[in-house]
Write a structure and sequence with these properties.
By secondary structure, this protein is mostly helical. It has 14 helices and no strands.
């Protein structure tokens, strides 16, 4: 049974120093020694990868949480991307430069970008890489889609697909949380390139069986799945814009296949419209309910009839006054007694 030994603070500090030294060489923050040249940089990159992938969790936690290491990583990110952009633009701005020299310089910078993507993914700084990749996307695509580069630099074009796949995967599946405008910008920049390169590489491969550059099936599926997930998570108006462009893209409609994202958008749109109609119907029902008190007010008017009924006792009081007539009738015997008195007087 292997016994885990907790690293001492001195060991952790030494590990951090070694990592920083290797990372600085790997990102060319310090110029490599002339006798070694790029070999030292390559060895330093391998050392960084080894420390990140094979270190114990405790050591890896120190490396990924240290603020000085994060600062060096961001400096290295800036340095590598600056070198990459400069190398790319030399392809167009220096036409007299030998193609092989330019290609070597560009592919070296592209390899640094890909290496850094893997490293920052492991150190928890992938968000910085994605932000920078999004910023340089338009510049990169301007160069690789230039007519002068149409039939060359296939290795660069495939590498761009591979790095973009990692970026889309991180954003599309929620590993990184970006605001909707940033996600839409990333997708709108790379979606046309992805579908065009897929068709072009397949066509070149079909025409020439020895054509070495292809979009492997795994890469193709990874990119397609990430794009579908990314589109489905965008606001409805952004989804509608992207899906409308996809449906009118003609020969590019087969890849990436966004039919799943389209079905999700249709379902959500129908549900939203139904809820909207229900919400619009509610005020009319409420107004009908508000009209009901008018009947109640009519009911409140009924007591006027009741008041009329209450006035009926006045007739009853008149009836009660009838006994006065009866008392008058009772007074009539006095007249009869007067009549008897008259008869006695006549007998006398």
């Amino acid at each position: 049974m292997t016994k885990l030994i907790k690293a001492s603070p001195e060991e952790l500090s030494a590990t951090k120093d070694v990592f920083l030294s290797a990372f600085r060489f790997a990102t060319s923050i310090n110029d490599p020694s002339p006798p070694f040249g790029d070999e030292l940089r390559t060895c330093a990159q391998e050392q960084v990868e080894f420390m990140l992938w094979d270190s114990e969790k405790e050591i890896l936690g120190i490396i990924t949480a240290d603020e000085e290491i994060k600062h060096e990583a961001r400096m290295g990110l800036c340095k590598i991307f600056t070198s990459f952009e400069k190398a790319l633009f030399s392809l167009l701005s220096e036409p007299d430069m030998k193609y092989k020299d330019v290609e070597k310089k560009i592919m070296k910078s592209m390899a640094d970008v890909e290496w850094l993507c893997n490293v920052l993914m492991k150190t928890g700084l992938m968000k910085d890489f994605v932000a920078r990749w999004t910023d340089v996307s338009n510049c990169v695509l301007t160069v690789v889609e230039d007519k002068r580069v149409h039939s060359i630099m296939w290795d660069l074009k495939v590498k761009l697909l591979e790095v973009t796949s990692k970026v889309l995967d991180a954003v599309g599946y929620g590993t990184l949380i970006l605001p909707p405008p940033a996600r839409a910008q990333l997708l709108k920049a790379w979606l046309p390139y992805v579908r065009k390169m897929k068709l072009l590489l397949d066509s070149m491969g079909n025409e020439d069986i020895e054509f070495p550059y292809r979009m492997e099936e795994e890469l193709s599926e990874t990119i397609e799945g990430a794009i579908v997930s990314l589109v489905s998570a965008l606001p409805s108006n952004n989804q509608a814009e992207i899906l409308a462009d996809w449906m009118s893209s003609g020969e590019y409609v087969k890849y990436p296949d966004l039919s799943e994202a389209f079905e999700v958008w249709c379902y959500r749109t129908k549900s939203a419209n139904r809820r909207l109609l229900e919400a619009l119907d509610e005020p009319s029902s409420a107004s009908d309910a508000l009209d009901e008190p008018s009947s109640a007010s009519d009911a409140l008017d009924e007591p006027s009839s009741a008041s009329d009924a209450l006035d009926e006792p006045s007739s009853a009081s008149d009836a009660l006054d009838e006994p006065s007539s009866a008392s008058d009738a009772l007074d009539e015997p006095s007249s009869a007694s007067d009549a008897l008195d008259e008869s006695s007087s006549s007998s006398d």
